Each structure stands twice: as C-alpha cells, then as structure tokens.
Amino acid sequence: MNIVILIGPPGCGKGTQSKILEQEYGFVQISTGDILREKQKDNSDLAKKLKDLMSQGKLVPDEIILEVTYAKINELINDNVSVILLDGFPRTLYQAEQLDSFTDLNKIKIRSVISMKITESDLVKRITGRYSCANCGQGYNDFFIKPKIENICDKCGSSSFKRRDDDNAETVKKRYAEFVNQTMDVVDFYNKKGLLKEVDSTLSTDLITARIKDIISLEGNL
Ligand code: AMP
After folding, report:
1. Three-point CA angle 93, 99, 101, nearest 5°
2. Ligand 1 centroid vs 68 CA: distance in angstroms?
3. Ligand 1 neighbour 32 (Cβ under 6 A)
4. What is the pTM assigned to this prediction?
5. Considering only CA atoms, which of 44, 1, 6, 52 is closest in space to residue 26?
C-alpha cells in the first residue's frame, strides 16, 4: 500500500480531485473532515465537542484525529487497497510526525505530497459557492461548476443537493488562518523530505487533475 497526501486550505479542491482519482484509478480517499462530520450526528459528548470546534473553524485535537485516521487506514489495509489519498490529514506537524511512525511500522510508503495553492479571496468565493449531490456526493459550485442540467446531478440524476453548515465567509477566513498557522509546518516538513509538489488550485478542474496525474505517474503510483 502507498499514500498520496493532498494538502491545501479547506475548499481548495482536494475533495473534487480525490473523487476524480477514486473513479479513474480506484484510489480510496480518506477525508478526516467527512469522518468527523459523520461522527457529529449522534448525541454523544464527542459529537458536541466536534460540532463546537468545527463550526468555529478550529482544529480538532490531534489524539482524536489520529485515532479515527488510523482506524480507517487499518480498515483499508484489511481490504487490500493499494493507494490511499489523504485529504485533510496531516494538518499539524505532530500529525505528520505520527503518520511517519505509523507508515514505517506498517510498511506503507508515502509516495507523493501535493500542495494545492490558493489565495484567501479566491478561496472565499470557491467555498461560499460550493455544494454537493446529497445522493452520490458529486461536488458543484455556484461560480465554477454547475450541473449540466439545472438541479439534476450529472453523475446520478438526483435532484437533492446539500451545503455544509460551516461554508460561510467568516468560518472560511478562520479556517484559512488556521491552515496558514499550522499546516505550513507540514508543508515544510514534506518539502525537506523532498516529497512535496505544488499545484495551482486556481486552474480549471481538468488542468489540476492533469497536473496531479503527472505528479503521481512520475512517482510511480499508476
Ligand atoms: P475539512 O472537511 O477537511 O475542511 O475539515 C473540516 C473541519 O474538520 C476542519 O475545519 C477541522 O475543524 C476538522 N478537521 C479535519 N481534519 C482535521 C485534522 N487533520 N486535524 C484537525 N482538525 C481537522
């Protein structure tokens, strides 16, 4: 098994690119944000804590993230998945260091780390406009990618769509600031290891995909 890490501020297009790579190559995405949103749904103390932190755009404590991410990776190891795409993890230097120990121990190779770059103002536009199909999860955006037929999902034909509670300009700015404060250390960490490649996230979805495919094939993942 090997891992491709997508790094970028929330809303830079990591989820969209992960979906494309899953469909085309059978990679499996782990989105820590999605796992945590799922965990918010019951009435537990953990659910309340997650809701509180995430609605403010704050990072969830490392120990919670590590536990849920390792559980998911272990599940995929048992399913013999060959490439995992990590979307939204690691987000702190500590998480990156812990992931290194975990991958060494489990003989997993981190093959590529892709940094998806975008400015704060482009990001606000992108996030406040985004929504997805409630049935299959296909992503859309009011400003960039709408369904070909209005209100009908291109992929599954559903007419039910959803938006995330935390997709407002104020939360986006907080999350961008969190990203700059904490995740840039992660970018440096992988840069020093020679694993980091950059992609311009303001390009079209197709061009970003092409650039990511180039990087991944160069690293021998395809
Ligand atoms: P995302 O869907 O990746 O934008 O994540 C949504 C929210 O989940 C973030 O704003 C954080 O509150 C939390 N989160 C997701 N991944 C992590 C992580 N690796 N470390 C800490 N918090 C996280």
Report:
1. 110
2. 12
3. yes
4. 0.82
5. 1
Q: Copy the structure tokens of residue 23.
A: 């469909």
Taking alpha carbons only, the member of 88, 202, 208, 199 closest to residue 144 is: 202
Using CA positions, which residue lies closest to atom 1 of ligand 1?
33
Around 208, how many Cα atoms within 13 Å sit in the side-chain half-sphere? 24
Question: Can you say how many angstroms the Cα of residue 83 is from the centroid of all Cα atoms in its chain?
Answer: 15
Side chain identity at residue 179, one-letter code: F
The pLDDT, as a whole number, for residue 180 is: 85
- Answer yes or no: is pLDDT of 152 > 70: yes
Which alpha helices (DSSP H) does the chain contain, by range? 14-25, 32-39, 45-55, 62-78, 93-105, 120-128, 169-178, 184-192, 205-218
Tracing tokens 């995430």 back to the chain, one arrives at 54
- CA–CA dist 14, 6 (Å, integer): 6
Q: What is the pLDDT of residues 133-150, one digit of tens each?
A: 999 999 898 887 899 999
Question: What pLDDT sits at residue 79?
Answer: 94
Quote the pLDDT of residue 211: 95
Identify which of 115, 117, 114, 88 has the alpha carbon closest to the alpha carbon of residue 219.
114
114 pocket-lining for ligand 1 (C-beta < 6 Å): no
